[in-house]
Design goal:
This protein is 44% helix and 23% strand. By secondary structure, the protein is an alpha/beta fold. It has two domains: 140 residues, Rossmann fold (3-Layer(aba) Sandwich); 137 residues, 3-Layer(aba) Sandwich (Rossmann fold), CATH 3.40.50. Strands 1, 2, 3, 4, 5, 6, 7, 8, 9, 10 and 11 form an eleven-stranded mixed sheet that branches. Helix 1 crosses helix 3 and helix 8 packs across helix 9. The longest helix has 26 residues. The chain is globular, with a radius of gyration of 20 Å. The two termini are 22 Å apart. The relative contact order is 0.13. It comes from Nocardioides perillae. Belongs to the universal stress protein A family.
Length: 299
């Protein structure tokens, strides 16, 4: 998408309450990271044309397309004004993609630094569709994705306690560790690292331990605390979403310059499937914001 500059923060909006919450979160994050914000809406003309009334004899398909696109433009223009009111100084662009939501967001992820989306939308049917979209985007996006899961007793923009990260290769590759430290630095929050334990004691992966040590040297201002949580690390991360400002974990591996599905052979495919399953399990049971970070190879 030409309207999506490289390295920006992209937020998907659809007119829902969760979309509005995603807008607020993304506008604040864009200011903290000193990045431009792109407000994106998927003007899915195909779905509108497939509606029963549009398929009736004599339907004006051109009029339907124009109406859908005009409504999308009005939505993003209003959201852009709201973002500027919420976070004065944020540089905002708008984009209306003639695609369904999953395709539009995944296309944006090839240029963005961060995608921010709600986990549900308007109405029972829309909730189901956007739930599927958020899961697909978290699994296949080529940049980090923050999914704002509903938080009991408050919203995702409330300044809850620090950032949480799991110390396991299943949930914390090098780029997830870096994202966690960067987020903690930007929001001036502490970082809690959850360590899985087994019968032999700590099960922290040596590669993750090295990434943590390197990140601690690069971002010494971040206060880091470590906590052992037993063998169910995914469950502990999901539980931590209720009180954390953000829980960060790795998604599947992506290969620079290739389609995500083509990376790593059989072993890489199994690792991607496992990481996808863990990420989706945390997202499904989360009660707060979760950031899924793809681990890039070949860069």
């Amino acid at each position: 998408m030409d309207a999506v500059p490289r390295g920006c923060v992209v937020v998907g909006v659809d007119g829902s309450a969760q979309g509005d919450e995603a807008l607020r979160w993304a506008a604040e994050q864009a200011v903290l990271e000193e990045r431009p914000l792109v407000v994106l809406h998927a003007a899915d003309v195909g779905t509108a044309l497939a509606a029963a009334w549009a398929g009736s004899p004599g339907a004006d398909y051109g009029a339907v397309r124009r109406e859908v696109e005009a409504a999308g433009r009005a939505l993003v223009d209003g959201a852009a004004r709201a973002a500027r009111d919420l976070s004065p100084g944020v540089a905002v662009r708008t984009a209306v993609g003639p695609l369904e939501a999953r395709q539009a967001l995944l296309a944006a992820s090839t240029r963005a630094s961060l995608l921010v989306i709600g986990s549900r939308g308007r109405g029972p049917l829309r909730s189901l569709v956007l739930g599927s979209v958020s899961a697909a985007v978290a699994r296949h996006a080529q940049c980090a994705v923050v999914v704002l899961r509903p938080r009991p007793g408050g919203d995702a923009c409330t300044p809850w306690s620090g950032v949480t990260l799991g110390a396991s290769a299943d949930v914390a590759g090098a780029e997830a560790v870096e994202r966690a430290f960067r987020h903690a630095t930007a929001r001036r929050l502490p970082l809690t690292v959850l360590h899985p334990t087994g019968s032999a004691g700590s099960a922290t992966d040596p590669g993750v331990a090295a990434s943590l040590a390197g990140a601690a040297e690069r971002w010494p201002a971040v206060a880091v605390q470590h906590r052992e949580v037993g063998s169910d690390l995914a469950g502990a991360l999901a539980g931590a979403t209720a009180s954390s400002n953000l829980v960060v974990l790795s998604g599947p591996h992506h290969v620079a310059g290739e389609r995500p599905a083509g990376a790593g052979g059989a072993g890489g495919h199994r690792r991607r499937l496992h990481r996808s399953a863990v990420a989706l399990a945390v997202l499904e049971h989360a009660s707060g914001p979760v950031c899924v970070v793809p681990e890039q190879r070949g860069r």
